[in-house]
Design goal:
alpha/beta, 5-stranded parallel sheet, 8 strands, globular, binds adenosine monophosphate
Amino acid sequence: MNIILLGPPGAGKGTQAHRLVAERGMVQLSTGDMLRAARTSGTEMGKQVAAVMDRGDLVTDEIVIGLIAEQLDSDAANNGFIFDGFPRTLGQADALGELLESKGQTLHAVVEMKVNDDALVSRITGRYTCGDCGAVYHDETRKPTVEGICDTCGGSEFKRRADDNEESLRTRLMNYYRDTSPLIGYYYAKGQLKRIDGLGEIDEVAARVSNALDA
Ligand code: AMP
């Protein structure tokens, strides 16, 4: 089963993707993670996208489609791929359809996670992740059980994203509504859209995602 998790920044796509990886053995393909990795390792492309990402703007379709194409070539996913943060434009959506088709694969579902804008701001500005395994935490709503130790892997290094501040969040939201939200209609028209309420406890949302996928 190949699926897209669609929703604004802070909707919980990464968190739910991690759950699906753990519970269903799916493979997560997050273009945001790939771009951050390119920055950390200092590649030419990483340097090229750094300022764009920090502002909260979208990097070019060409770059992200290239990253996804590369991963589809190198990763085997018997239990399917989760596209997280991709596609974000209609051009990317068309390209993904063509890439999957060229591999004899299909897209099974697009799960739209709906969260109101006020909740997004507090989710994003309080969030941090484990530097080792990427598990997601929040200053108020989801602290590690033992302070300073990751519940998932026991790691003790945590990090915050440079673009998780109010100013770039505003730009990211604007870009979401302008460039990405048309994908809701696009996948609805293809009969692939499943909409779920993204507000609530992580377990509750995970159950809604599962129900949507198994329906
Ligand atoms: P994310 O981790 O999905 O929030 O992505 C972080 C940043 O990476 C975004 O604000 C964009 O600058 C860039 N990015 C990630 N995925 C894409 C994409 N599919 N298209 C364009 N830019 C992207």
